[in-house]
Amino acid sequence: MLYLHIPYCHRKCSYCGFYSVACNHERDSYVDALCFELASRRVTAPLHTIYFGGGTPSLLTPVQLARIIDVIRSNYNLSEIKEVTIEANPENLTPKYLFELAGLNFFNRISIGVQSFSDKMLRMLNRVHSSEQAFLAVKDAAEAGFDNISVDLMMGLPGQHYADIEHSLDSIESLNGLVKHLSFYEYTVEPRTILEQQLKMKRCFMPDEDELASQYDLMIRWCKDHGFEQYEVSNFCRSGYRSLHNSRYWNLTPYIGIGAAAHSYDGISRRWNVADVTRYVEGAKEGMIPFEKELLSHEDSFNEYMMVALRTKDGVSKKMLSERFCDYEEYFERAIKPFQKAELIEETPDSYRPTPKGLLHADGIAQKLFL
Questions:
Q1: Where are the alpha helices (DSSP H) in 89-203?
Q2: Phi-psi region of 159 (alpha: psi -120 to 50; beta: other; left: phi over 0)
């Protein structure tokens, strides 16, 4: 797995806690640094998935993307590649840009950050695009040849109502099957964001529990009725369109993270690059990317696996327990029993997986199982 972080944005969204910088920052120098790090961290094992995330990767020009792709092709084994995703915002996805993107013959999946098809909600989120641009972006992506199209939506936002979610889902339906994957994220208040300040100053208010439950119920029912399988708490897809890259995160597959603030995981340790574009670029020029690293304890690995696995439809693998966490297997089987009795977890021949009701409480269940 290979992840590349492109930290540029037109402007900071009011809800976003991820590291990003204004798009007027010198991007060519950042691309140079990315190419340096890609080459310096080459591996011989074949890659299965590649993901360009951000930020807004679609703020890079096709020429800049082509430079990065050339370095990947020169330094990595792509003989077993299955999925290459690029995140994009609707305002960047003009027919010309999409045609050039498809012409790179590299990306086979595009994830569009719509967040809402309500213009009112988009203004509250400080998004650049309109609902019409979002709608056209999906259609134009399909016309450019992209079949595997994912859309991000948000629920539980301040001032958001059931009708807003209904309108967004109606918009997806009117795209006549072009959207193959939905990531439907519940808003959480991130520290040091615009929305956090607005909530503290009581300029906006979070929806109450009943409203949030009705939004989630609508989403679940709509996805089921329209052929979308829920395979993770926030992720839904038509048959055959699971996100392969994200699914591999959830079973603790090692990955390489390239770029400022990018994280990497090798199975026993985690490292993260400096969250500063200037220092990242300067480090690349000097031949050494600044990063920090921590060795994960066996307990940390077990706890992390509980957190990610119980958010998925597949749940906790018995094979993973017996092979990687055999010393905690007896503890797990004892600790999971109350959740089985409460019909939040069901046992299968291969796994302990959350029931539909259990998915609603996945994070809480995982925390009760932590060592």
A1: 95-102, 119-124, 131-143, 162-173, 194-200
A2: left
262 in Cβ contact with 5 (< 8 Å): yes
State how beta strands 235-237 and 229-232 pair: antiparallel
Range 161-185 burial, b when 16+ CB lie within 10 A, else e: beebbebbbebbeeeeebbbbbbbb
* This prediction's pTM: 0.94
Bond before 113 cis per omega within 30 degrees: no
Amino acid identity, residue 163? A
| CA count, 13 A, side-chain hemisphere, 351 | 14
Residue 324 and residue 23: Cα distance in Å, rounded? 43
Q: Count the Cβ atoms, other than its own, within 10 Å of residue 67.
A: 16
Determine the pLDDT at residue 80. 98
Which backbone phi and psi does 48 adopt, to 5 degrees? -110, -30
Hey, what long-range contacts does 130-133 have (CB within 8 A, 24 or more apart)? 131/171, 133/90, 133/91
Whose CA is closest to 159, among 106, 211, 218? 211
Containing 21, the helix (H) or strand (E) segment is: strand 21-22
Which SS3 state, helix, strand or coil, does residue 209 take?
helix
Q: Which fold has domain 2-249?
A: pyruvate-formate lyase- activating enzyme (3.80.30)
| pLDDT tens track for 135-145 | 999 999 999 99
Give the tokens for residue 252: 């603790």
Query: What is the three-state SS of 67-104?
Result: HHHHHHHHHCCCCCCCEEEEEECHHHCCHHHHHHHHCC
Q: How far apart, in whole angstroms, are the C-alpha atoms of residue 206 and residue 27?
A: 37
**pLDDT tens-digit readout, 92-116:** 999 999 999 999 999 999 999 999 9
Domain limits, CATH 3.80.30.20, in the chain: 2-249
Phi, psi (rounded to 5 degrees) for 197: -65, -40
CA separation for the pair 341, 344 (Å, rounded)? 8
